[in-house]
Amino acid sequence: MKRYRLRYAPSPTGYLHIGNTRTALMNFLFAKHYNGDFIVRIEDTDQERNVEGALESQFDNMDWLGINADESYLKPKAEFGAYMQSMKFERYQQLANQLIAEKKAYKCWCTPEELEEDRERQLAKGIVAPQYNRKCLNNQDDLNNSDKPFNIRFLVPENKIYKINDIVRGEVEFNSKEIGDFVILKSNAIATYNFAVVVDDVDMQITHVVRGEEHISNTPRQCMIYEAFGWDEPAFCHLTLIVDDTKKKLSKRSGNAVFFISQYREQGYLPEALFNYIALLGWSPKVEQEIFTIEQFIEMFDEKRFSKSPSTFDMVKMKWINSQWMKKLSEDEYFDFTKKFIDTSRFDIDSKSTEWLKNVLMLYKKELEFGAQINDHLDMFFNNFELSQETKITLEQFKDIKEMIEDLKVKIESLQNFDEENLKELIKQLGIDHSKKGKELFMPVRIFTTKSEHGPELAKTISLLGKEKVIENINSIL
Length: 478
Ligand code: GLU
Description:
By secondary structure, the protein is mainly α. It has 20 helices and 11 strands. Helices cover 43% and strands 9% of the residues. The protein is elongated and about 105 Å long. The N and C termini lie far apart (79 Å). It catalyses: tRNA(Glu) + L-glutamate + ATP = L-glutamyl-tRNA(Glu) + AMP + diphosphate.
C-alpha cells in the first residue's frame, strides 16, 4: 500500500480557530492512524492578505494542541519541493507555460474593466452565473506580441462530467459547462489557488485531501488540472460545516462560542480537552464514551465515521469536556495550572502561603470548568464585600437565629485548633444546643461565616478563611 500523506494547508491570513483546527486535526488523525505523514504547507499566494505573525501563531497553537507536523517549512524534505507557495513561483510558471504549449491554457489580455463590462452584459441578459467569454482564446496569435499584461486561463473542456468520489459525501458530479475558463496564473505571475493546490499536492505526493466543504465547488476545477497533466488524483474528503447554535457557520461573531484557540489557552482550557472536543466535531467513534486521549483517537480513527450533516459547536459540552480533563490532573498539576489564571490585580496571592492557596484552589477542583473560572470564587478569601441582595433575601427566611449566631461566634472565638475536624464538631454541637439541623443550621452558619449562600464544603472553607476573617464576617452581618 502507498504510504498515506495528508496535509493541512493554511493561508497565513488568520489565526488558528475551531474550524481550521478541525481540518488540521482530522488530517493528522487520518495520517497517524495509517502510520502516514502529516504535512503543513503554507498557501501564501495572496500576499496582500497575509497577516503578520499569523503563521507563527498557527504553528505555536498546533504544537500546544499536540497536532505536530512531520514536515513543514520548518522541517522540509527536499524531495517534496518547497512547503510555501511563495517559494514556488517558477514551478507554477513553467507548468502554466506547458499547458499553453499543449493548448490546454491560453493567455488573456482582457482588462478588469472589460471583464466587468462583459459580466454586467451577461447578467443583464439573465445569465445567473456569467463566465469568461473566451474573447482572447481566438486571438492568441494576434495579440501574442503585445506588451499588455496578461493572465493565463485554463481551457475548460466542453460539456464534460467530472465525478468525485468523496469520502464523506459519496459520488458528486459536476458538469464542466457550469465552469468558465478560470485563471491559473495571474498577470503578476502569481498562481491562483486552484492551480497551485494541485501542483503542490502532486509535488508532495499527497494521497488524501481532507478539507472543509466550502472547497467542494473548487474540486472539479482541480480535477481538470489533474486531467490536463495526466496526474493521478488524491482521494477527496470534504468535512461538513461546523455551525453555531443559530445554525450559521461558526465564526468569530458566533454568540456563545469562543472561536480562536489562543482564547481558550488564555482562559485556562487544557490542550487535551480542546483536542478531544474538536475531534468529535463531525466525527464520532463507535463507542458511546466521550473522553479520549490523542493516542486513543489515532487508534480509533475511521474515515467512514465522518458525519454527513453539519455539527453544532456546543460551548456547554466543550466546558464539560474540559472539566473532565481538569479532574484528571493530579493535585500538584491542578494547582500549578489553575494558579496561572488567578487575576492578581483582584487577588493578592503573594500575601498568602502556597500551602493555604493550594488548599483554597483544591476546594474547586471538582467543579471548575476552566482555569480562569477560579476568579469567580476567590472574593470571599481575599476581599471585603457586602451581602448580595439575593443572599439577604435568603437569610431573611431564617427566623430566630440571632441567639444561635451569637453562640456560634463565642464557640468560634474560643476554638483552639481552627481546623476542619474541629469546625465540623463545632457546627454539630451548635445544632444540638439550638435544636436546629439541616438547612436551618447550615445556611445561616454559611452566610454568617462566608457571606455567601453557596460554596464548597463548609467546615473546610471556614478553616481556610481563618478565625479573624470569620469573626469579622459574623460581626458585619450581626
Ligand atoms: N488554503 C486553503 C484554505 O485555507 C486550503 C484549501 C485546501 O486544503 O485545498 O482554505
